[in-house]
Amino acid sequence: MSEAAQRIVHYSVRDGIAVITLNNPPVNSLGNALRAAIMEYLKKAEGDPAVKGAVLIGSAKAFSGGADIREFNKPREKPDLAELNDQQDAMTKPLVAAIGGFALGGGLELALACHFRIALPKSQLGLPEVKLGLLPGSGGTQRLPRIIAMAEALRMMTSGNPIAAERAKLLGLVDEIVEGDLLEAAVLFLHRLLKEGRPRRRIRDMQAKVDGDPKAFFAQAREQVAREWKGYPAPLEIVACAQAALTRPFDEGRKFERERFAHLVNTTESKALRHMFFAERQTTRVPGVPEDTPVREIRKAAVVGAGTMGGGIAMCFANAGIPVTVVEMKQEALDKGLSSIRSNYAGTVAKGRLKHEEMERRMSLITPSLKLEDMSDADIIVEAVFERMDVKQDLFKKLEVTAKPGAILATNTSTLDVDLIAEATQRPQDVIGTHFFSPANVMRLLEVVRGKQTGKDVLATTLKLGKTLKKLPVVSGVCDGFIGNRMLEKYVQQSLFLLDEGATPAQVDAALQKWGLAMGPFAMYDMAGNDIGWEIRKRRAKERPEMVYSKFADRICELGRFGQKTGKGFYRYEAGNRKPIPDPEVETLLQSYRKEIGVETRQVSDEEIVARCMYALANEGAYILEEGIALRASDIDMVYLAGYGFPPYRGGPMFHADSVGLDKVLAAIERFQKGYQGAQWKPAPLLAKFAKEGKRFNV
Known about the structure:
This protein has 699 residues and is α/β, with parallel strands linked by helices. It has an 8-stranded mixed beta sheet with strand order 12-11-10-13-14-15-16-17, sandwiched between helices. It is globular, with a radius of gyration of 29 Å.
């Protein structure tokens, strides 16, 4: 055994029991070296006459988090996990998995190939592979339905959600829940088995069962996962493998499982979900701002503005246990804001997702005020006032006086220049953008906008705070619209041009929803309020006259059709119902507008709708990447995955463009340049360069 292997797996013999301890922090991922070391020590225990049984154990915090995802789609060294499981099955001496912390994915498959399993009370057991577009690939789909009820096994595998040890014990997945020292308990458990003469219990030798007619059971299971996981191939493959566990011998079922795993690991969907997994962990890694950068302590917060955004931001702080003062200028606005916050919490309580006592505790952390001076002890102040530069600059001049030295001054602007806002103060190093997404208490994305004078400690503190608030913080440089809204503008521009040419709002939305978006652009604008986009377009007309927009959206607004809040927008809405209903009035308006601008309508395909909208995002993303506004292409993807309802199995707009092929994306854009409003298509130099060189945005 090499010295390196001995470092990641420890072997000892205690009173006739071999103890094989996984020591590959932080999660004991089952990479090549760890698998080989476990295999060698299993053989050593099996061949030692003095050893009567063996315990496989990790730490109290982690048995194993499963496979090393970085090894997927790469040649794998022997032994693979399946071969390691074969060695476990071949053991003539009882083998016990002692589970602490969690046994997930390949980690649970490792435990399932043991003869018995014990666990600490707070342990979690699960097969989350479906969340990466995969299925358990080392016998998990074959063993789990043999040890617990088929319906429960399918629920675990198709949801990917772990279950607690107590639940696992109830289902039969865990033999015993133990307290105290896990290793001591495992050795005692194994000695008891030996004393009682209990035979080894190999799950592979058990028979899977279902209640009722198997054909009807699996038909219903397929129908359910197809409905719940639209666009994801893995759940249906999991059902097929579980059915094989019922109908085929173990080795045949496992062979089928490996074939389906090999298929899934090469799908775009799985590659996209794995891209998302790694991309999410990259967003707070900022060049020049190391992880050990000193941060400021955030004990108290304040929010200026108690409207929809301000109230939601205040809830974020309260949810994280941080006291927050909410300031408004008028009592009526303050009362309305606090009432909305309480109503939001009450709705969560009514759904059973929050206890009433916890609601009251969170409400007690929110202090209403009509005075900016009441924020003087706040460590961070977030403004959430009207989206106008003069309003924000005026407020920051006042904060200059009222905020304590060292307080972070954050603006929730969604488009405005953070540097110009910072110029209104004498401490621009303390100013940063914190662009929350609506509803702020629900949406995960937080664009952290770094100004040219923002201090490194302020950036590091805000990124840490974002995680404390359970957000996904993504760093953006300063530009109009930052990452998300700057790209969205090009997306919306194309969607409106499509209306000019013959499409309807319902067709555009339906095509993009079918492709996987949570919501199409017109339903989205109606929800957000069409007046917001109208204000931006008015500003654009002055600042960027070269930016051409269809005027149809303005016509909608001129009629007071601001969306859900007025009952009419691109759609109409019935009282108390947010479902968009196609409106004949809009179609009439469109026909009139098309005649006015002299456009001859044509049949627009769903494929063209998707291509123009998606490539508009990717092309603008390439500009953003080249300008250094985004640190990496994967950050752009995370903005859209976490904040704009982009389907995870598409991987984000930049990953999607990579998947299509940048040469094909560029060729499509060049075709679009010859069509309606073609001058608005300007291929990003970075896109053209990468397309020519055969490169990808995401390395």
